[in-house]
Amino acid sequence: MDARLNLFGSSIGRTFSQHMLAAGQVMSQSTVPLTTLELVRLRASQINGCGFCGDMHTKEAVAAGESHARLHLVATWREATVFTEAERAALELTEEGTRIADAAGGVPDEVWAKAAHHFTEEELAALVFNIAFINAANRVNVMVRQPAGDYEVGRFG
């Protein structure tokens, strides 16, 4: 399967992609564990049906030290006992932020309060932007039908 559009094939695509990738690197400067950021990216990608991002963030999570067992349980994190309370709060915030159109009023206060209990304001900012960022990346890759499976760790810096 080939992508409908080569995202790096035009000057607009190259420039936007470079800026988007640079913006994506900002979250790794936060004190939120990289494994948590990758779990968030993976969960949003699963919800949005983005195979490319699912492939990428599964591999990046393993490279960051995440276990295969936990990665296999991300889609069913509510029933899984392998996630910390902080990770669970981040995953719930991810689901609510990704499905924002499904809920009148956006992310419920109780979901936000759980996340705020486990993360500082700086970390919450990183999580919010991480969720927004991965949702944007998912939408781009789903629209162009970016194929999944051949991602190599570190490909985008």
TrEMBL record:
Identify the residues that the record assigns to the Carboxymuconolactone decarboxylase-like domain, covering every copy. 23-96
Please report the organism this UniProt entry assigns to the protein.
Streptomyces zingiberis
Which PANTHER family does the annotation name?
Answer: 4-CARBOXYMUCONOLACTONE DECARBOXYLASE FAMILY PROTEIN (AFU_ORTHOLOGUE AFUA_6G11590), BLL7811 PROTEIN
Protein name per its UniProtKB record = Carboxymuconolactone decarboxylase family protein
One of the Pfam families matching this protein, by short name: CMD
UniProt lineage: Bacteria, Bacillati, Actinomycetota, Actinomycetes, Kitasatosporales
Q: Which domain of life is it from?
A: Bacteria
